[in-house]
Amino acid sequence: MEDCNQKYSCRTAKETLEWINAILNFIKPYAFLTNAHVTNFFTHKLWQSIDPVWLHCLRNEPVQNLLLIPCGIIQEHWPASLKEFVLDLKSLAFPREQAHLNKLFPGVNVVSLNTVLAQGMNFKKKHEVEVLSAVVSSVANSVGAQTIVDVGAGQGYLAQVLSFQYQHSVVAIDACSHHGTVTEKRAERIKKHYAAQMRKHYPGIGIPNVPKTITCHVMSIDMLKALTSMSPHIDNVKRPELIGQVADDKTSLVLAGLHACGDLSVTMLKTFLECKDVKAVVSIGCCYNLLSEGCLDIAGSQCGFPVSCGVKSAGISLGKSSRDLACQSAERWRSLEQDAGLHNFELHAFRAAFQMVLCKYYPEIIKSSPSIGRQGKALRRQQQRRILQSSINCDESKHSSMPETISHMQELYLNPHMSESKTDDYSGSALHSHELSCNGGARYNETAAASKYLLFEKFTQSGLSRLGLKSLQETHFHEIWKEAEPFAVWGL
Q1: Distance between CA 135 and CA 346 in Å, rounded?
Q2: How many CA atoms lie within 13 A of 454 on its CB side?
Q3: Domain count of the fold of the chain
Q4: Least confident residue range of 128-132, 248-252, 464-468
Q5: pTM: predicted TM-score of the whole model, two decimal places
């Protein structure tokens, strides 16, 4: 849906190229930031290249104002150059206003999933499957498609709803054999339920359709074209080498994908253009940071980015760090409450400071681009539980004395080697600043600082453990944290 107030447009190829070139001209001066991993802001001291007036201004801003920056919301007291930067950025961003479904697909009827079809889905997944299945079914009916091919089917949620609820013939393709097995078992359970209902209420009607599964890693357009030529009436296929042997008569198809990852979304679009049997494509892409690139000069390249000739002619090359950065959702940051926003900033600071530990004491590990998994989210969940509990405690006793634990924390902060953490448990003595604020008093900032340091130490110990590294005695976490601490956001 196009915003009438949008400065740029994709109405024509010329206008689209103008937009692309405007983006290129805007980001060129900031390549040192867009091409760097977020942790490099600390390890390479990139803040030294930022306008010091901007840094001074933003460091004193309330968290809620910082969370609104990605959405282009400015404050009147900011420097003129900073306001111009944020507003220019907003004008170049692609609009994300939600479209009206009934205007795009007149007559589409979104049906709520019953408990049998919705088994295993969380609220978000259930909503996505309900809406997308209704859209795919509507499109398939409008183009007269005989078969729907669910590309990157995962555990088959979309395929099974299209098959059982909308009575379409469906083929589910996924690279993971485990997903194929789960899809088949889940489909059989659902089939038994629907078969029993049909025998009870509609005797004489045949057994409901069950999605056919194909386990295959879709590596190219030709492979997907071969897969889509397979008849949905064959048995489930788990041997990709048989693909060419099971081709059937031509049939009309719709390609569908819910969270088709990286290049898979691009492959679907290219297959739609090149395969006349594919009448429509309905795809919700994801993991754009996993798009392949770097093949601009290779004829017939299968790289996922860029796709259009216009973008290729502009010579755009993003790189992994820029693609990762581009996947950050401005809308998600804007919707965060202050506590959740603080947690996000803190986790970025912890991870960046942990990178400083690796650079200084484990330089050989840095070459392998180490990943420490989702421990940040685990830490955030534990913090949120502690905030909830501390709020309850505050309501019960607002005038209680400062816990003895805080005094112990202050001692640890001043003498960090007294604490040796050997587990992934982030609770223990590390209190969140929200908990400390309940007690008020002049020592709040000091105890909050102690809390942040102990959380960082726990985070680092856990990260080293996950990488199979032992903490060296000479590793001075306190020294690293003091360097990173000025760039961690504090509750206001």
Answers
A1: 40
A2: 30
A3: 3
A4: 248-252
A5: 0.72
